[in-house]
Task: structure prediction
Amino acid sequence: MTQRHNPAVPVDLTHLTWSLSRSSTGTAGSFLKSYEEIDGQKIYYKMSNYDSVRGVIGHESINEIVAQNIACVYEMVKERVEYVKNL
Result:
C-alpha cells in the first residue's frame, strides 16, 4: 500500500520539471503536471490553478483526490463484503 503524505508538512518539489503535458497516457489538460519515480513507483503531481493575486483558484486537483479516496473506500467495503460472504 502506498504511504500517504501528511499535507500539513511542506514538501520541497522544486526539483521537479513542470509542464502542461506529461510523458504518459492521458490528456495534457491545462494544469501544470509533473512526476517523479521513487523506489520504482511513479508519483504524479498536478497543480491547481494559481495566480499571485487570487491564490489557488482551481479545485480540479482536489476533486480528483476526493474521488480517489472514495474509490479506495468503496474497494475496501467491497473486499470486506466479499470476505463476509465467503465465511
The first strand starts at residue 33 and ends at 38.
